[in-house]
Amino acid sequence: MPQISSRTSGLGTENAFVVLKEVNDLIAQGREIISFCIGQPDFNTPPNICEAAIKAIRDGRHGYTPSAGIPELREAVAEYVSMTRGVEVEPDWVVVANGAKPFIGFTLLSVTDYGQGHEVLYPNPGFPIYSSQAVAHGAVPVPLHLLESKDFSFDVDKLESMITPKTKLLILCSPQNPTGGVLTRETLEKIAEIAIKHDLWVYSDEVYSRMVHEGEFMSIASVPGMLERTIICDGASKTYAMTGWRLGYAVNQKLAPYFSTWMTNTTSCPNHMTQWAMVEALRGPQEEPDRMMAIFKERRDLIVNGLNEVEGITCLSPGGAFYAWPNITELCRIVGASDSEEFRKKLLYDAGVAVLADIHFGMRVPGEGQHIRFSYATSNENIIEGIERIKDFIRTNRR
């Protein structure tokens, strides 16, 4: 029988979807599950965006588009990024893809060479596709630990000490998945100084850029000297509740032509009619996404306050995104769970509450204890009920 390549057989995945299958299997068996495991807005896509897609279909927008995306969308993205990041971006620097995720791979393919030992620094805990794509494309992923004592930022001095002649790329995510941490201006300026000094590319994952709960979002691309070496990546999924529409974009003057070629080599072009929907998303009324962002902030306060009332849990207030990352080290001891993954499974099967464990986002950070992730992209009622179920679970399972 023909063999599967080692690159494929060892390919990592996004464990949120693995846990989601567990959840759906239990629901199919008649169990009532409250799920905090998927990072997906629980709102419908705003009506004006849907209507723009319907109009595009009726207007015959059915064929291939340029690999980099329709000119109208590239122009809209350039306008939007220039306005929200405080930089001057040209439409030719923009490439659109079927979601933001492809640009992780496209960036790795464009700035590292297979089998040359080129290193990629990435946040840990972090979005698991960073490291899985690095390995798949023949680079060496090097985890950059996020620390609870630094509000889930990292030690910038430690960052510089980890850079070697093989280091080609630094991946940042702010606001961050899974911790909700936000990198401060001071930290971004220090990182920028290091990136320039060591001539690094920086992939800036900014898909949660509209979800900063206090203050203003800042992109590292706005630091002097960083725009040319930063790949700004964002998309429609989180801000406009368009996860299933699959549209994202990347911005970089030098890499845009190469990203466009990678699009030609993979999916040919982005989905045609949904590109027109995204034009409307970016240029149309912003009241609905602003309303959604305000609701996420209210939910942030509700879930953080609730979790901190639970025995054995301490939870920092996330600065952005829609994730809480509570420390459950003491709670594991109270209920006799060996680690966060055992606790996660017990909570799902015994209490009907679905969360993700820290190991779903990379290796545990030494000395940081046990954590789980809650996505609070769900209703207030679910948040309140979920916390009550956790309290009941502790009462029943106390050792």
TrEMBL record:
One GO biological process term: amino acid metabolic process
Organism: Candidatus Desulfacyla euxinica
E.C. designation(s): 2.6.1.-
Residues in Aminotransferase class I/classII large domain copies: 32-390
Keywords from the UniProt entry: Aminotransferase, Pyridoxal phosphate, Transferase
Top-tier EC class: transferase
Co-factor(s): pyridoxal 5'-phosphate
Any GO MF annotation of the entry: transaminase activity
Alphabetical list of Pfam families matching this protein: Aminotran_1_2
InterPro entries given in the database record: Aminotransferase_I/II_large, AspAT/PAT-like, NHTrfase_class1_PyrdxlP-BS, PyrdxlP-dep_Trfase, PyrdxlP-dep_Trfase_major, PyrdxlP-dep_Trfase_small
Protein name in UniProt: Aminotransferase
Family the UniProt entry places it in: Belongs to the class-I pyridoxal-phosphate-dependent aminotransferase family.
Coiled-coil annotated residue ranges, if any: none
